């Protein structure tokens, strides 16, 4: 199973763009890259998922280089409510749905 | 309905008690998961059910006993727990295990905060 590495924490200010990079050096051919957001005392919530290049939805963008050994979650114009922990997850269905989270990045958005 | 519902939200139990955590989803998902999360740590996978059959047990102690009565329900039976088992227990579901061509998207409940005294 691919092992993921993320920065432990990041600080930002309202209105700024936040970019969180996850390293997954031994990602397998079939692995997708998924990002989740978690608030205290709640379950993680799906943000975005991708396999290669760039994916964008209404809340975030995900950039994946050609070698797929890393990925970057981009949160445009963050607000105070974006303060949360963000997890990168790389899963391989060939491993029997063993989906394991990375260490998480604690993002603090300041006013 | 895109919710995963977990009950109870909070549970305090003694080391000799027997209790159960319950999880329910009505999205037609055929994979269901139990995760354990300690404070300031990522969720750790405990069990995976695929089509109501246990497919993964991450070497979880036998004092935790999962059960999947049907495709919508998942239980976690607790017996003789230790104080170090205190944690947030999260249930999740996903559409179709082994669905080639798409990554799994997990839907999580809000969890049960368990305290073992």
Structure, described:
- The complex is a heterodimer of chains A (111) and B (117).
- By secondary structure, chain A is mainly beta.
- Helices cover 0% and strands 47% of the residues of chain A.
- Chain A is built from no helices and nine strands.
- Chain A has a five-stranded mixed beta sheet, with no helix packed on it. A four-stranded antiparallel beta sheet of chain A has the order 2-7-6-5, with no helix packed on it.
- In chain A, a hairpin with a 5-residue loop joins strand 6 and strand 7.
- The radius of gyration of chain A is 13 Å and the shape is globular.
- The termini of chain A are far apart.
- By secondary structure, chain B is mainly beta.
- Helices cover 0% and strands 55% of the residues of chain B.
- In chain B, strand 4 and strand 5 (44-50) form a beta hairpin.
- Chain B has strands at 4-7, 10-13, 18-25, 31-37, 44-50, 53-57, 64-70, 73-79, 87-94, 107-108, 112-116.
- The chains are: A mainly beta (111), B mainly beta (117).
- Chain A binds chain B through residues 32-34, 36, 41-46, 49, 51, 87, 91, 93, 96-104, and chain B through 4, 31, 33, 41-45, 48, 50, 55-56, 88, 90, 92, 94, 97-100, 102-111, 113.
Short description:
The complex is a heterodimer of chains A (111) and B (117). Chain A is mainly β and 111 residues long.
């Amino acid at each position: 199973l691919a092992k993921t590495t993320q920065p432990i924490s990041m600080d930002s200010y309202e209105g700024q763009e936040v970019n969180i990079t996850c390293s997954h050096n031994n990602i397998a051919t079939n692995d997708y890259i998924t990002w989740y957001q978690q608030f205290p005392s709640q379950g993680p919530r799906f943000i975005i998922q991708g396999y290669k290049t760039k994916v964008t939805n209404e809340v975030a963008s995900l950039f994946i280089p050609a070698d797929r050994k890393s990925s970057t979650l981009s949160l445009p114009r963050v607000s105070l409510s974006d303060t949360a922990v963000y997890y990168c997850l790389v899963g391989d269905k060939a491993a029997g749905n063993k989906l394991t989270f990375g260490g998480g990045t604690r993002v603090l958005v300041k006013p | 309905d895109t919710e995963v519902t977990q009950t109870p939200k909070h549970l305090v139990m003694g080391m000799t008690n027997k209790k159960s955590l319950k999880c329910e989803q009505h999205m037609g998902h055929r994979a269901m998961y139990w995760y354990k999360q300690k404070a300031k740590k990522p969720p750790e996978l405990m069990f995976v059910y695929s089509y109501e059959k246990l497919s993964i047990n991450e070497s979880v102690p036998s004092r935790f006993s999962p059960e999947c009565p049907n495709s919508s329900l998942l239980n976690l039976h607790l017996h003789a727990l230790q104080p170090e088992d205190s944690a947030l227990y999260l249930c999740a579901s996903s559409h179709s295990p082994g669905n080639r061509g798409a990554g799994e998207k997990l839907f999580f409940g809000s969890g049960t905060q368990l305290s073992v005294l």
